[in-house]
Amino acid sequence: MAHFTARQLKRFMGFWPPFLGAGIKIQEFADDGTRVVVSHRPNMLTKNAMGVAFGGTLSAMTDPFFMLASMHRLGKEYRIWDVAGEIKYLKPGRGTVTADMRIPEETYALIEEKTANGEKYLHWFDVDILDEEGDVVAHVRRQVYYRRKQK
């Protein structure tokens, strides 16, 4: 992946056809790769049969972002893949829903430590998707694969 600025990634992903069609909006992509905030407001084209946010869209809101933020932060010295995801739906998604994905500095330090000698490392990230009242609509887990490339 070519190295993009956080602003370029935010813009590009906002116009990426799957997100554009689903109405997923990138609100923030931190320059240091520690935070990505994404939102979605269901509309007539994106609601499910029950008139609320489609579950696939809720899952897609978090799909590439732990991987992309990590790639942005760690650079070309690493192989990074989004390898697994789990979602638990807890409440119908009415109105705007938001996922605030964070990768703390301590997590990046752990990734660098675990992959220092070229070993693979699998890390699980957790994020809640919240509605406008702050209630949890869905709990999402994403597993990301990391391996430092050998020189």
From TrEMBL:
Q: Which Pfam families match?
A: DUF4442
Under which name does UniProt file this protein? Answer: Putative secreted protein
Source organism of the structure = Corynebacterium aurimucosum (strain ATCC 700975 / DSM 44827 / CIP 107346 / CN-1)
